[in-house]
Amino acid sequence: MIPRDPAQLVELARNGSRTALARLLTYVESGGPVQLATAALVYRTPAPYVIGLTGPPGSGKSTLTDRLITTILTRGSFNGIDAFDEIGVLCVDPSSPFTGGAILGDRIRMQDHATNEHVFIRSMATRGHLGGLSLAVPDALRVLGAATFRLALVETVGVGQMEVEITSAADTTIVVTNPGWGDSMQANKAGLLEVADIFVINKADRAGVRETRRDLEQMLDLGGAKEWRPTILETVATTDAGTDELWEAIVEHRAFVESGRHDLRRRARMRHELDKVLTAVVRSRIGDLAHGAAYEEQIDALLRGDTDPYRAAATLLAEP
Ligand SMILES: Nc1nc2c(ncn2[C@@H]2O[C@H](COP(=O)(O)OP(=O)(O)O)[C@@H](O)[C@H]2O)c(=O)[nH]1
Ligand SMILES: [Mg+2]
Fold first, then answer.
1. Relative to the CA of 176, which ligand 1 atom is closest?
2. Which of 61, 89, 102, 275 sees the fewest Cβ atoms within 10 Å?
3. CA of 11: how far to CAs of 42, 45, 94, in Å?
4. Dihedral sign for Cα atoms in the order 242, 245, 249, 255
5. Topology (CATH) of 45-261
6. What pTM was computed for the model?
7. Distance from Cα 106 to the centre of ligand 2, integer Å
8. Are the C-beta atoms of 86 and 48 separated by less than 8 Å?
9. Whole-angstrom distance, CA of residue 7 vs CA of residue 3
């Protein structure tokens, strides 16, 4: 029997129980007291190194993730950086609250790994987490950390603000594009530029690679000088072409991250997460205040002309 107590579950997950790990991730998704208890338990454990992939549906993120998993597991130690023998994969689709078709496709594309004991694949959905997926994902990553995972891949479908936000929780963020990428990314080019550490032009077996690379280079030039200029790579995920180079680029970026120059980014990320949590908590408090007897009393008083909305709000906020 698997326990319900988060502390016991964390202990089991630390010792390798995937069932316990899965239950903790469900806790994280569902919000409420179990989520808070889980978050408090896993907060201090070292988080895994997180590689995020985002890009439009169909750009090849899952196929690339699948290739990367094989590369990482077979290459062993790399340039003196220790090998990863366990990989956690989170698949996130902010456009669908429940596991939809895209995720089913992901499962099929990654099925070789689904039965591999070194790989843990999980689709994330929000079932009530206060801050939605953008806060559930960082919590889930800490749970993976508590379960001793040192490397995680997060695949997020789409290129909107929400997806960018989720992906930017990663240490290395990969934006997956295709030749002729312009249209699908147009709306949020600036946002993607902001978060990308590596641009991958996947489906490089198709026409238009050179133009796409030129577009990207131009965009990067306009973006001005940065400490890290995003790497631009070409891959054909279906044939494995470019996967080794992608892993090398990740390792190179990781070295940059761990050189410490990255502290500011970590701080900005932490600040961002705390802001999101604060917003979520305050919004939830508003939800609590904006109904019930005391609230209706204030509405009555307002209708009678006995108070004004500001005083009414102050009165409600002052309630214990
Ligand atoms: N021609 C070509 N097709 C690819 C390539 N990479 C992926 N695909 C195909 O594109 C489709 C979508 O891939 P998928 O990995 O599910 O994309 P995702 O939605 O971004 O996860 C699948 O049919 C893949 O086989 C590539 O490099 N070249
Ligand atoms: Mg996918």
1. 20
2. 275
3. 11, 12, 30
4. positive
5. Rossmann fold (3.40.50)
6. 0.85
7. 5
8. no
9. 9
Q: Look at residue 113 in the predicted model and tell me its pLDDT.
A: 58
Tell me how far apart the alpha carbons of residues 88 and 121 are, in angstroms, rounded to a whole number.
6
Q: Ligand 1, residues 238, 239, 240, 245: which to mutate, most atoms within 8 A of Cβ?
A: 238
Q: Are 114 and 134 in contact (CB under 8 A)?
A: no
Question: Which ligand is closest in space to the CA of residue 236?
Answer: 1
Structure confidence by residue, pLDDT tens digits, 260-271 = 766 677 787 788
Which residue, by CA, sits nearest to atom 12 of ligand 1? 58
Map residue 89 onto helix, strand or coil: strand
Pocket residues: Cβ below 6 A from ligand 1 = 55, 57-63, 102, 105, 109, 202-203, 205, 236-238
Tokens at 133, concatenated: 């997926």
The amino acid at 302:
L
Ligand 1 geometric centre to CA of 210 (Å): 19
Q: Which residues in the chain belong to E strands, given as ranges?
A: 49-55, 87-92, 119-124, 151-157, 172-177, 198-202, 231-235
* Lowest-confidence segment of 102-106, 216-220, 240-244 by average pLDDT: 102-106
Q: Which atom belonging to ligand 1 lies closest to the Cα atom of 203?
A: 27
- Residue 54 phi, psi dihedral angles, 5° rounding: -135, 165
- pLDDT tens digits for 192-236? 888 899 999 999 999 999 999 998 898 888 877 778 899 999 999
Cβ atoms of residues 219 and 193 within 8 Å: yes
Tell me the pLDDT band of 103, cut-offs 50, 70 and 90: very low
Q: What is the pLDDT of residue 72?
A: 86
- Which pair of structure tokens corresponds to residue 8? 């016991």
Across all residues in the chain, what is the average pLDDT? Answer: 84
